[in-house]
Amino acid sequence: MADAFPTFRRYFRAKARRLGKEQLAWWDLFAPTGKADRTYGWDEARAFILDNFATFSPELFGLAQRAFDRRWIDAEPREGKRGGAFCMGIEGVKESRILCNFDGSLDQVSTIAHELGHAFHNYCRYAADKTPLQSKTPMTLAETASIMCETIVMQAVLDQTTDPAEELAILETLLIGDTQVIVDIYSRYLFEQEVFERRSQAELSADDLSDIMARAQKATYGDGLDERYLHPYMWTWKPHYYSTDRSFYNFPYAFGLLFGIGLYAVYRQRGAAFVPDYMALLASTGEGTAADLAGRFGMDICRRQFWADSLAVIGQRIERYCAL
Ligand SMILES: [Zn+2]
Fold it and tell me: Taking a C-beta distance cutoff of 8 angstroms, is the pair 8, 318 a contact?
């Protein structure tokens, strides 16, 4: 991941130029560019997701169709409803339920695809009659199916567009996410590591935490961000830091994204023949290490090259973004 920072910094500089700035401030990281005015109605989002899931496998299509038709998805934002999105498997009935806050944006279409991926993961476990103990998925593999579904949908959006302004907007949406998962997650990892080390010696004040956070961000974003406008208070609102039984709840996102991109590359090579093996992998995520399960696909994730190849896919998005 650290090897990819120079590539990401090229993206930050290109984005700053687009926004007419020397350097990005923290908040600019999330600014849309290009023609981002395309919105999706609920039925349109449903149809788009189902059509593209159908190209992957009838099982994925069927699962998503049941989720839509049987109203497993609490989709609309409402007063008093919490933000974000998540999916929960209901063991007793072997089904899933999804919460999201659909606002018609492409980002939310991708989020629904993501959560349906979790539901598909549950479906594969249920269909294979795995017991709850066999199903306990480690953090490394928890995002495998979700990233795959997100990639299927976003790749389809990218493949279909012919308008450079729209392509730019889609790439921006993807790169905003990739930046969070690679560059920001790495800063959160550095932050957490230093907090644990220092907290074993002494208590830490709020100022200490902000100082650690700002240094961690400088270390990963480098000159890509204007150091006057970092986000030293990030630690105050990320709920993951306050989950006492889940330390370092940051790396699974990075692992999941890069592992998912690697799997997606295998899918592109093998096509439909990939799907049964993939479903068997999802069914057995509680029974083997990521390295063992990936080995079934001839993927050696203990080699540095595997991760470099996945990061290169993001690198290609950045090249294209800079060229547009
Ligand atoms: Zn997820």
Answer: yes
Separation of CA 115 and ligand 1 centre (Å): 6
Cα(142) to centroid(ligand 1), Å: 7
Tokens 């990739």 locate to 178
DSSP state of 24: B
The residue among 263, 267, 269, 256 whose CA lies nearest residue 178 is 256
**Edge-first strand listing for the sheet containing 86-90:** 73-74, 95-99, 86-90
The predicted model gives 123-145 an average pLDDT of 89
Q: 216 versus 136: which is more confidently predicted?
A: 216
| C-alpha 200 to ligand 1 mean position (Å) | 31
The answer on pLDDT for 243 being more than 70 is: yes
Query: Is residue 213 within 8 Å of 271, Cβ to Cβ?
Result: no
Q: Measured in angstroms, how far is the CA atom of residue 114 from the centroid of ligand 1?
A: 6
Query: What is the 146 CA–ligand 1 centroid distance (Å)?
Result: 6
Residue 34: what pLDDT? Answer: 85
Residue ranges covered by each domain of the chain: 2-35+163-249, 42-162+252-323
Burial of 161 (0-12, 13-18, 19+ CB in 10 A): middle
Q: What is the pLDDT, as a whole number, of residue 36?
A: 67
Residue 46 Cα to chain centre, angstroms: 20
Report CA(205)–ligand 1 centroid distance (Å).
Answer: 32
Nearest to 145 by CA among 64, 46, 243: 64
What is the rounded average pLDDT for all residues in the chain?
A: 93
Ligand 1 centroid from CA 6, angstroms: 27
For the chain, counts of helices (H) and of strands (E): 13, 3
174 contacts: CB under 8 Å, gap ≥ 6: 154, 158, 317
User: Cα–Cα distance between 115 and 86 in angstroms, integer?
Assistant: 6
Stretch 257-276: mean pLDDT: 89
Output the CA 296–ligand 1 centroid distance in Å.
Answer: 23
CA of 5 from ligand 1 middle (Å) equals 24
